[in-house]
Design a protein that fits this description.
single chain; alpha+beta; Four Helix Bundle (Hemerythrin (Met), subunit A); paralog of FGE (formylglycine-generating enzyme); four-stranded mixed sheet; 13 strands; globular
Amino acid sequence: MKTQPLVSAPAPASTPAHTSTLAQRYAQVRAQTLALAAPLSEADCQVQSMPDASPTKWHLAHVTWFFETFILERFEPGFQPFNPAFRVLFNSYYQGVGEQHPRPQRGLITRPGLAEVKAWRAQVDARMAALLQHEPGEALRTLMELGLQHEQQHQELLLTDLKHLLACNPLNPVYHPQWPLGRVVAAPMGWVALAGGTVQQGHSGEGFAFDNETPVHAALLQPHALATRLVTHGEWLAFMDGGGYQDPRWWMAAGWDWLRAQGICAPLYWQQGGNPAQHGGWTNFTLHGRMPIDPHTPVVHISWFEADAYARWRAAQDGEPIRLPTEAEWEHAARTLGPALHSPGNFLDSGALHPMPLAHSGPGLQQMGGDVWEWTASPYTPYPGYRPWAGAVGEYNGKFMVNQMVLRGGSCATPRDHIRASYRNFFPTDARWQFSGVRLARDV
């Protein structure tokens, strides 16, 4: 694989002034997705490593399907689809649009080939550029922003799914050769106390938000404290060395059953076989290849079951009422005590593609944005008064509000301008292939 830039170039200067911001943003986001796929071969882009993951080619096609289906079909005069068969092939889960190809069989779609998918992208991009030559109305702007946010989600999914695929290869292939870590020692973990009381939770109404972030509502918090930084690989090694994966006291019953059925004894992508004197010989697979465990970086690729078990184990070790934070606690802290989520941090834009250590602990909460998605103790359920969007796009979030847990904060694979304090990510309790980690909370 050859190295490619991870950040796209801006749109051409010839874009008309009255639509330049929207047109440039569209061009940047679309180019970013192609840049992420550029180092890959056609074979890399074709394979599906598990039912929960999708091939890179499918991601490239699906986000293009979104713009063609939800925007061009509605707003383009004389609309004609690039290929009518693609309406089924690249529909993900929108029942209101029509049938879908079975998700576990996406890797079997060998045709269209990668070149044809890219040609489809280019054609749709040209048609979108022509559409944006005219002042877009509110309905078009709203769907455009949804489409761009949707594509940014798939940029992260492209990387997480690709990482799972490459990790299945015993050759430990390298996606991005520049290893970002140096000799940095993680700052000590501290605690920041927060008073209880009634706070406002949810998106305030300024700027874009998904429907699951609304409406704003009151949340009651008890006095608590949050850890100043994320849990590290070194701290996780102590959990493992302390028998954390062998002791059912720390695990939910379903988590213990899952652990035993799957033979889980370490986070995803960990293997033994390195230098035994170096962190027990553990290595982990990264987008930079297989590397020794770095004890100072945030632990990543753990399930909610594992995050919850670690918090219970840590509570016993420290003699403190330690637990996972609720999403209301996390959001309130991010708004009031954490650094701005758009401040320089380890998002996709940094190019690191790996969680980074916190070398200098400043005042307040650190690493609230980027590095790893932070599991919370909150189930993914609707806020009081929630209403899904109208039409087929109303299927985007609401129908998944069962059997999932909420994560907050974004990761090293999340575009920085995609995240905000109210953003709610969600996955099942056993999901590990996302860039997921943990921040601790405790009662005070």
